[in-house]
Design goal:
homodimer, 529 residues, mainly beta, 5-stranded antiparallel sheet, 4-stranded antiparallel sheet
């Protein structure tokens, strides 16, 4: 009935059912991440038709904004991502009633779950002769692929088909498995111990997801996986070896500060505690961190225990401090970094930072004066916030911004360092200029007053690439950065020397298309960042 | 927009906006309890217009069912509760699209919260000279009142205005306060220590509620209250002294067995654990019991901890076993009683019983052969199920129906006993005949083989009353039963001798209208049933 009604009203906007369907697809791919499936807004603004009309946004005005961008919104037209007829369609679509997003039940997950290689048929020790702990899993975003690259030889080991727009990879505690999660809610396990990397299991867990992790506490290593979903807003616990669904828990709920009810209360980042059999799930719109205890899942009659901690709203991504006790997470729309203590299960601090912090997992090092610190860059500020993280050894700096580093541009997505490197490296993939997109900067970790070394990556601008995501190899001697270009253009990954910042080599080939995140097995498994 | 659409379609069914509003009111009062606000069904069937049409239920067929009843559904027409024009309206209403139920936010609760007597102005010791521990709080259901009656003298002490259709009263651990919850989601606190009973605080917690309790664990007595809501489906934690809202947690979520998502996942009964600072909340449609830890609510940065235990679906009402360790709760639509161990926080058993068990809080006693037992009657079966509850002393009987007692009729709502009474008493207020409605039965607790003593209450049928709810006085020497008649008719409460079953007296007066539940302070505070 609701579908018919929405259909009828969409027709009133001049959209055929086919156009409505196309609008839904485009909206889901380009808009929903920031504005929400229900268009109620999150990082982006509210886009409900009533709101747009109240704001006086006509079809023409909307077309102009989609074409040219506005504030933090990309210029979808100018960037060539949406064509003029698609922009026409989207303006009409946005003025039509919000279609009800589809459901995805536990039964749906079960039906869309496949074990390609049963656990009994998997190797019990590594069968590859390569140094698999130094493999990199490279996301080929728009190809729906993950490439496994040998970090020692830089050879392509294997390309594996994955879901659409893979968001991240996470490693099992022993590093053997890569867990993949895509924006289409498809999760996969890649086994790196096979003769060649093999997709051993997959499950379509939801319709939109951003995070995955596994049980890492002693005695539970690899027993369970958990996927954090955007739509439906929930988390799903799966068998860690087969991805068989075990438990689905809704996160729909209330905004902590106002009590407004949210159907879209999405699970952003997830980490696995080292202090207890718990996952730390960040519930975005509502403003809570949930500690989910997985230790009783296999005990009949026992509960799943969820500890709900109030935080700032709009939690997004984050990472551990150096001690792996404190989890620092960006509350991006309110310009804060929140700190959760995994040991005591409590909220520790809300730290004001710059505009739209985006740490990825952040960067950790020991500063000569401030002691252990963690840092985040920002999407909408030309700043890197360095935060003291050692309340015992350096209480005067703990949970304060000890240094706000000026950068050459906003538009940073990732910063990274490694205990073996003297440098803190930053990218600028969402900066407003192609020059900045192609540029990387490095600061001396021990001397933050000193001007950074910045360089434009040769060849990047030629293919309209944005340099994105910094990841070190196992021994920390080099770091890799992806040149994220268009799907039609073969691109490259640059390998730099960790000490000299000199380019050592490039990973190229026809297969290198839309590379984005690239995760080193050892560093990912051991939370080294 | 959605409202406009529903309005437009309702018009298509021939309903004016005023009629639609009237339909919503009648539906909410008479239908929603069993069929759900969203009409998706629970104890009653699904009533969505698509379903009714698919089942071939025309407007005339629906009118006939509302008039004459069907299965467990009352004959609303024949009983004179709905008039013919209201039945016409309801048939049209049910074939119209389901209107979106209103929201109720934390801000709404705050705005509708009032402290009539601040804590500092309340007495620090009883100022009444009456034996307040033997007060009865009598619900005058359709009057929107609670009467406080002196259990010693049988005098009316005070009538207090409460919300619409008060569902239950619960006592604070010390018995001083009655906590009231009505079907309109209004909660009140009545102070029995004042010179005369006084309404000291109230809050409109939600739009439909059924349960309330307070923190009873040592050190937390009376610190918090919790209300379980039907709509919106959630629970709300309030200050135990003032009802100031503290925390609202949604229970919308998944059916545990199928993964279907439920907006209407209602909180049925609540009890307060004696083993830990936890409440036990029964989540009806989804099939879970939630243990909610209230011990960290006052600690900054600390979580609210929810332990989610899978159970049968359609949990409704229930009570403690004699040891107050095990909570027994009816899963009424699936003919089960589930057992939760409050000490270990786990699901213990699912016990098949009769059709639609309705224990209220049940009845506990020590049987000479079976040891400690707990019993429930049934709405749709002429049976009382007696269940063994002593896994240590009588393991062979534990969590089994040790005796299924035949009763003279289905339609039982409450059974009750007291350690000082040799009798197990049952009412039949929802039985199909006026004779049964006016009748009470009593079994010898120690000799369940023996035929019961049954008697029709003189005068009950004359006023079309249904005898309902049995409650003992403080010393267990007598029990009270309400004659639940029409609002226009003064009615009575009969007081019986606990040993001889002889009528001792009647509580009458113009004020005794629609009396239903009547709660003794001492027995309610101490969970004696």
């Amino acid at each position: 009935m609701a579908v018919l009604l929405v259909g009828a009203l969409a027709l009133a906007q001049g959209l055929t059912p086919e156009q409505m369907e196309q609008g839904k697809q485009i909206y889901f791919q380009q808009c929903a991440g920031c504005h929400g499936v229900l268009r109620k807004g999150a990082t982006g603004k509210n886009l409900e038709p009533e709101t747009l009309k109240k704001e006086g946004l006509t079809e023409d005005a909307i077309k102009a904004i989609i074409t040219n961008g506005m504030g933090g919104m990309p210029a979808w037209g100018k960037l060539g991502i949406l064509k003029p007829d698609e922009i026409d369609l989207m303006a009409k679509f946005l003025l039509s009633p919000v279609p009800e997003p589809p459901a995805w039940t536990f039964e749906d997950i079960k039906k869309n779950w496949k074990v390609h290689v049963p656990v009994s048929q998997r190797p019990t020790k590594p069968e590859t002769t390569r140094n698999w702990q130094n493999f990199f899993g490279v996301i080929l975003r728009d190809m729906g692929q993950v490439a496994i690259v040998d970090g020692d030889t830089k050879e392509l080991v294997k390309i594996l088909p994955t879901g659409y727009a893979t968001h991240i990879l996470r490693s099992s505690k022993d590093g053997r498995y890569f867990y993949v999660i895509g924006r289409d809610g498809r999760a996969e396990i890649i086994d790196l111990w096979s003769k060649e990397p093999t997709l051993v299991a997959e499950a379509k867990v939801c319709l939109d997801a951003r995070s995955i992790d596994t049980s890492k506490y002693e005695g539970y290593e690899g027993k369970y996986a958990v996927v954090g979903c955007y739509w439906p807003s929930n988390f799903v616990i799966l068998d860690g070896q087969t991805l068989e669904p075990i438990k689905m828990v809704s996160t729909q709920g209330y905004v902590q500060s106002t009590g407004e009810f949210l159907r879209e209360n999405r699970v952003a980042s997830i980490v696995s505690s080292h202090f207890s059999p718990e996952w730390i799930l960040n519930i975005k719109e509502g403003g809570q961190t949930w500690l989910v205890d997985y230790s009783k899942l296999n005990l009949k009659g026992k509960p799943i225990v969820v500890k709900m901690i109030d935080t700032d709203r709009f939690l997004h991504d984050g990472g551990w401090d150096l001690s792996k006790r404190y989890f620092l997470v960006a509350a991006n729309a309110v310009k804060k970094v929140d700190v959760i203590d995994a040991k005591t299960g409590s909220f520790v601090a809300s730290i004001p930072v710059g505009n739209k912090p985006h740490p990825g997992r952040g960067a950790n090092w020991v500063h000569p004066e401030y002691g252990p610190v963690w840092a985040t860059g920002h999407i909408k500020d030309n700043k890197i916030a360095v935060i003291g993280t050692d309340p015992e050894g350096h209480p005067q700096y703990a949970w304060k911004v000890v240094k706000m580093i000026e950068t050459m541009s906003p538009g940073n997505l990732f910063i990274k360092t490694h205990p073996k490197s003297p440098w803190l490296i930053a990218d600028f993939p969402v900066a407003p200029t192609p020059e900045a997109n192609a540029t990387l900067c490095a600061w001396e970790k021990d001397n933050l007053e000193k001007d950074p070394v910045c360089w434009e990556v040769p060849g990047a601008r030629d293919i309209h690439a944005r340099m994105v995501h910094i990841e070190f190899n196992k021994d920390g001697s080099e770091f890799w950065v992806s040149a994220w270009a268009n799907k039609d253009t073969p691109s490259f990954i640059v390998v730099y020397d960790s000490y000299t910042l000199q380019e050592k080599t490039r990973i190229t080939g026809d297969w290198v298309r839309t590379p984005t995140g690239h995760f080193n097995v050892y560093n990912t498994a051991n939370d080294i960042y």
